[in-house]
Specification:
The chain is mostly helical. The chain contains 4 helices and no strands.
């Protein structure tokens, strides 16, 4: 296992696989001539089967967005706090409140 070699490969292969899948699904739904038509602002909804499929895709996108925001809110302040605690960032970011022991400055940042 060589992460310096395998990680870039996995990222490229995963991205390319996703692009090919989107192309095949889009081509199957619209046909080859459909690509020449004006593009839809919601291509995933066009590929979905009917209104129910479009709503399911929209729901999946909303859940994915909330998951990403949750991850960002939980992860970034920890990095800022640790950097400040180690002297690599502003010292005020490493301060925690007396009552809750929460790094409020890091969370706001």
């Amino acid at each position: 296992m060589d992460p310096t070699r395998n990680l870039p490969r996995a990222l490229v292969m995963g991205t390319n696989t996703n692009e090919v899948h989107a192309y095949v699904e889009h081509d199957h739904a619209w046909g080859r001539k459909g690509w020449r038509q004006p593009r839809s602002p919601r291509p995933l909804s066009c590929v979905a089967m009917g209104n129910v499929g479009a709503r399911l895709i929209a729901l999946g996108i909303a859940i994915s967005t909330l998951g990403f925001l949750s991850q960002s809110i939980l992860t970034a302040p920890r990095v800022y706090f640790a950097m400040a605690r180690d002297g690599l960032f502003f010292q005020s970011v490493a301060k925690v409140t007396e009552r809750t022991h929460v790094p409020v400055v890091a969370i706001v940042l």
